[in-house]
Write a structure and sequence with these properties.
Helices cover 76% and strands 0% of the residues. It is mostly helical and 272 residues long. The termini are far apart. 35% of the residues are buried.
């Protein structure tokens, strides 16, 4: 009997350990949530942050913390209903912070957070719109401009590659106006993608102006010019020009990376 009682008691305490601690106020729930989040107990943190939002819905911090905890649990690229629900919940909480009129830093975090989630949910137009909103809040932040470039390239690259695959076009072969099927695809993609490509290039230029050693932005400049080149089906000289520009951005990217690597190596002192 004693051993049975001990087993029941142990089992009780085992399950109690997984029950979120009850708190009596907004502040205590928020503190418990922060403590759980720092300990990588994200589900428990989510529970406490959600409780805090219920106790005082007017406080933007709780909504922002809840959005962050939900985003942390979201797995980019996984399209299961549960995972998408996490993203949708996070977007809802970020939006509630925006509705409460937060400070500029919190507003930027929310706009970037929503844009990041839309990007990984492949909602390109929504992602681009929210990165552009972030740029409007802080025009001197290069990262939203860079992210618009990333969205623009991804948005254009995927349908182009799908179209090329359907026509069995090799990776080294450009769309040709002399082939009726390829010309049809090229014309459709030019109408659909060219403006987005140009907007992406413009946005990446702004990012590089603000951060001259932004090698990631330079890499996407190369990719966007290659997107543009493949749509110059009727203009071989313009295509060649775009490819030269793309190659120049490859060289700039590599040189910038080398310069960063050299700075990262501590200066060697000569032996005394």
């Amino acid at each position: 009997m004693k051993s049975s009682s001990r087993w029941i008691a142990a089992l009780f305490f085992f399950f109690v350990a997984f029950i979120p601690l009850q708190a009596q106020s907004y502040d205590s729930e928020l503190q418990l949530g922060v403590r759980a989040y720092k300990g990588a107990r994200y589900e428990q943190a989510t529970w406490h942050f959600r409780k805090a939002t219920e106790l005082d819905p007017s406080q933007p911090n709780a909504h922002l913390y809840l959005a962050t905890a939900l985003t942390t649990q979201y797995i980019p690229g996984v399209e299961s209903p549960d995972n998408l629900f996490l993203a949708e919940q996070a977007i809802e909480q970020y939006q509630r912070v925006l509705d409460l009129g937060p400070e500029p830093d919190s507003k930027m975090n929310c706009l970037k957070g929503i844009a990041y989630l839309y990007l990984n949910m492949k909602k390109w137009e929504d992602a681009k719109a929210y990165y552009e909103k972030a740029s409007a809040v802080d025009p001197n932040d290069p990262e939203p401009y860079y992210s618009v470039g990333v969205v623009s390239w991804t948005w254009c690259y995927l349908p182009r590659m799908e179209g090329r695959a359907k026509l069995s076009i090799g990776p080294a072969e450009h769309l040709s106006s002399s082939n009726a099927e390829q010309k049809k695809l090229c014309d459709e993609l030019r109408i659909k993608n060219m403006r987005t490509i140009e907007e992406g290039i413009d946005s990446l230029n702004k990012a590089i102006q603000l951060r001259p050693n932004y090698d990631d932005a330079m890499a996407y400049m190369n990719l966007l010019y290659r997107e543009k080149a493949d749509l110059e089906c009727d203009n071989p000289s313009l295509r060649a020009q775009d490819l030269r520009t793309a190659d120049e951005w490859v060289d700039k990217t590599l040189e910038t990376k080398r310069a960063k690597a050299r700075k990262a190596i501590p200066a060697q002192t000569s032996p005394q």
